[in-house]
Amino acid sequence: MKCSYVKQIRSLIIAVRQYTGTQVDVIAYSMGSPIARKAILGGQCVDTREILGPPLTELIDTFLSVAGANYGSALCVVPIPVGTCNRRTGLHCESAFLQDINNQAKYEGSYVFSIFSTADEKVGFRTCGKPVAPIKGGTGYVKKDSLSHDQVMDTTHFLQMNFVSKHLPK
């Protein structure tokens, strides 16, 4: 989860805000969830030490994590020095990147929701003894029991729309 990815998402959020003049709704999928959370959090990039700037919390109405790897991925139980599972910017549950975004709470927006599945085969359900998807301090979440990783994104459009438009799951 490179700083360059975080900066791209951060720039997009700022551009949408400047164009619309209203708060932005963010729907982040899979690995995009921790990247978007860091874009909103701001501060310093873990890999390059670049300064991103202050939090964008006030610009965000709803932040929705869909099948998000917010606390890592069960596939990264064994840290690999390079790639997706590394301990610096990867999805290992103890990576510096994940510790950075998870050491604070309630910065993602006015409303923070998560949709995830206990049957997620890519992110998994638990790693390092805790669930990987629900965001600490969030407004709410919906847990599905039989959806694959891709199905969480592809079959929950109604839930996603309700979280964004009504701030409710139903």
UniProtKB/TrEMBL annotation:
GO molecular function: lipase activity
InterPro entries xref list: AB_hydrolase_fold, Lipase_EstA/Esterase_EstB
Gene Ontology terms: biological process: lipid catabolic process
One Pfam family in the UniProt entry: Lipase_2
Protein's recorded name: Triacylglycerol lipase
Species name: Oesophagostomum dentatum (Nodular worm)
